[in-house]
Amino acid sequence: DDVPGIDFSSAFVYRDGAMFDLNLIVERPGLWSILDAWGINDAGQIAATACTEFGDCRAVR
Q: What is the pLDDT of residues 19-32, one digit of tens each?
């Protein structure tokens, strides 16, 4: 099973025994960084928070 989580510098997903940084495996527009991940549904969509370097944050999936 996939497990989302936070490592205090970047959001990640734990899949098949390995940890993957979400900022490296998903498309992100512009200056957005995924900071935390809170849940994952049966379709594999991850609920997370993404922020710009200016502190503008949004919920994303």
A: 999 989 888 777 88
Q: Confirm if 40 and 50 have CB atoms less than 8 A apart.
A: no
The pTM is what? 0.72
Q: Count CA within 13 A, CB hemisphere, residue 43.
A: 4
Radius of gyration of the chain, Cα coordinates, nearest whole angstrom:
11
Residue 36: count other Cβ atoms within 10 Å of its Cβ: 19
Determine whether 37 is exposed, middle or buried from the number of CB atoms within 10 Å of its CB (0-12, 13-18, 19+): buried
